[in-house]
TrEMBL record:
It catalyses: a fatty acyl-[ACP] + malonyl-[ACP] + H(+) = a 3-oxoacyl-[ACP] + holo-[ACP] + CO2; (9Z)-hexadecenoyl-[ACP] + malonyl-[ACP] + H(+) = 3-oxo-(11Z)-octadecenoyl-[ACP] + holo-[ACP] + CO2. The active site is at 155 (for beta-ketoacyl synthase activity). InterPro entries: 3-oxoacyl-ACP_synth-2, Beta-ketoacyl_synthase, Ketoacyl_synth_AS, Ketoacyl_synth_C, Ketoacyl_synth_N, PKS_Beta-ketoAc_synthase_dom, Thiolase-like. This is 3-oxoacyl-[acyl-carrier-protein] synthase 2. The lineage of its organism: Bacteria, Bacillati, Actinomycetota, Actinomycetes, Pseudonocardiales. Its EC number is 2.3.1.179. GO terms for biological process: fatty acid elongation. Residues 1-398 form the Ketosynthase family 3 (KS3) domain. Pathway: Lipid metabolism; fatty acid biosynthesis.
């Protein structure tokens, strides 16, 4: 992993986002664009301007999702010391994970059709809405003409994308892959749908404490937007050009619960399968892992099942935290953003805290990080789970 880029509710840019998360602060706020809904909490990227990200000629032709991804990918490519003119474009791939695609575009154009008629639907609706168009826009923006893929495993999408990108490199299909996750799902329809499922926190009287993973008082997640992108290269390719390694993807595991469309399998067997597969892929044991960035959504069921699974596999070993306490749940972007936070934990020797963890659920028995904790962390795991029972685990090393 030679380059990383973050556009999150904690800030635009890796340093700003990382430093915010380390403070254990929360980006949750009342959202005026959701006014009138039962739940009107969100975590938005502060000060993000699509025009500044992609230019005025392109911004109006893109969904916010695509602009977020381009901004994060640009950071990652620059961090890797690469440029579109300095690589063999046929050997550069793109893999993007997203859960929703251009949801804001779809909602706006559906409203236009209902209110003004079919003739008022924009001709740009499909290229702005289709889930694969973010990967396509990245290829256009950066001249990447290798494999171009989109994966959608709900809230595991970003992690799945990084795992698939690693496999592309292993197969010899590419020398460089720009990979990660993105979603801009803070829209009325999305929020209304999650609200009907009782998945969202309704703690609007104290928004900053609404997202509280593993806390006894958790009542749901806070919806968020963002993008996390990385540049992955063959180790030999990176070494030949003198590139700095931010970290290594040493293991990847994927599985399905085969249980329920939204609820995790109560025994955590699918999640455990992904975790153990990632460990086996890396040739490592649970004792090798020093830090785990948990999926930790702040929902009753997910946190309980994940905590029990981590305990069963790892015992009392690693430090565990969920950065969703700070930035909310970025849906398809979460796995990629959290993989980057995990790499930064290894790089800086600091495990980020779980914001708003005031009273630990008595049924959860993990070494949860409540304030930034320094230590020697050489291997980290990042867990991601999604609707449909999709599970992904990434094992990362310094």
């Amino acid at each position: 992993m030679t380059g990383i880029g973050l556009v999150t509710p904690a800030g635009i840019g890796v340093d700003e986002s990382w430093n915010y998360v380390l403070k254990g602060e929360s980006a949750t706020a009342l959202d005026p664009d959701l006014a009138g809904l039962t739940v009107d909490l969100s975590c938005r990227v502060p000060g993000f301007d699509p025009v500044a990200a992609v230019g005025p000629k392109r911004a109006w032709r893109m969904d916010r999702t695509q602009a977020l991804a381009i901004a994060a990918a640009r950071q990652a490519i620059e961090d890797a010391g690469l440029s579109s003119g300095g690589w063999d474009d046929a050997r550069v791939g793109v893999v993007v994970g997203t859960g929703l695609g251009g949801m804001a575009t779809l909602e706006a154009q559906h409203s236009a059709m209902l209110e003004k008629g079919a003739a008022k639907v924009s001709a740009l609706t499909m290229p702005m809405f289709l889930t694969n168009m973010t990967a396509g826009q990245l290829a256009i923006e950066f001249g990447a003409r290798g494999p171009n893929l989109t994966v959608s495993t709900a809230c595991a999408s970003g992690a799945t994308a990084i795992g698939v990108a690693r496999d592309l490199l292993r197969s010899g299909a590419a020398d460089v892959v720009v990979a990660g996750g993105v979603d801009a799902g803070v829209t009325p329809m999305t929020v209304a749908a999650f609200t009907k499922m009782n998945a969202l926190s309704a703690r609007r009287s104290d928004p900053r404490t609404a997202s509280r993973p593993f806390d006894a008082g958790r009542d749901g997640f806070v919806i968020a937007e963002g993008a996390g992108m990385v540049v992955l290269e063959h180790e030999g390719h990176a070494r030949a050009r003198g590139a700095r390694a931010r970290g290594k993807v040493v293991g990847y595991g994927a599985s399905a619960d085969g249980h329920h469309v939204t609820a995790p399998e109560p025994g955590g067997r699918g999640a455990e399968n992904a975790i153990r597969t990632a460990l086996a892929d890396a040739g490592m044991t649970p004792a090798d892992v020093g830090y785990i960035n948990a999926h930790g959504t702040s929902t009753r069921l997910n946190d309980s099942v994940e905590a029990a699974t981590i305990k069963r596999v790892f015992g009392n070993g690693p430090a565990v935290s969920s950065t969703k306490g700070s930035i909310g749940h970025t849906l398809g972007a979460a796995g990629a953003i959290e993989a980057i936070y995990s790499v930064l934990a290894l790089e800086h020797g600091v495990a980020p805290p779980t914001a708003n963890l005031v009273s630990l659920d008595p049924e959860i028995d993990l070494d949860l990080v409540r304030s930034a904790r320094t230590g020697t962390y050489r291997v980290a795991m990042s867990n991601s789970f999604g609707f449909g029972g999709a599970n992904a685990a990434l094992l990362l090393a310094s």
